[in-house]
Amino acid sequence: KYGKEILKMGAQSVIISLGGDGAIYVDKKQSIKAVNPQGQVVNTVGSGDSTVAGMVAGLASGLSIQDAFKQAVASGTATAFDEDLATRDA
C-alpha cells in the first residue's frame, strides 16, 4: 500500500524494510517480497545503507531486478549479522 503511494509521488521504485521480516521491492510492474536469512543480529547500524548499495551494485552489474533485490537483502542482512559494515568479500 505505502509503496504504491510513494510511486504515485514520482518514485520509479521503492524498497520497504520490514525489519527482521525482510523487505519488499515495488515498482509499477511488480512487487517482490524477500525474507531475511536466519542468523544472529549483532548490529543493525548501516543495514539500510548496505541494502541500497547491494541493489545499486546488482543493477549496475547487469543483474535482473529480482536478483539485485536478493543481493540487496543479503547485503543488508550481512551487515546486521556482523559488528562491522559488510564488504564485498564478506
Attribute tags:
3 helices, globular, alpha+beta, 90 residues, 41% helix, 16% strand, Ribokinase-like, three-stranded antiparallel beta sheet, kinase, phosphofructokinase activity, 1-phosphofructokinase
Q: How are the secondary structure elements laid out?
A:
Blueprint: H1 2-8, E1 13-17, E2 23-27, E3 31-34, H2 47-60, H3 65-80
Antiparallel strand pairs: 1-2, 2-3
Helix pairs in contact: 2-3
What does it look like?
With about 90 residues, the protein is α+β, with helices and mostly antiparallel strands. The chain is about 40% helix and about 15% strand. The protein has 3 helices and 3 strands, in the order αβββαα. The protein has helices at about 1-10, 45-60, 65-80; strands at about 15, 25, 30-35. Strands 1-2-3 form a 3-stranded antiparallel β-sheet, sandwiched between helices. It is globular and about 35 Å long.
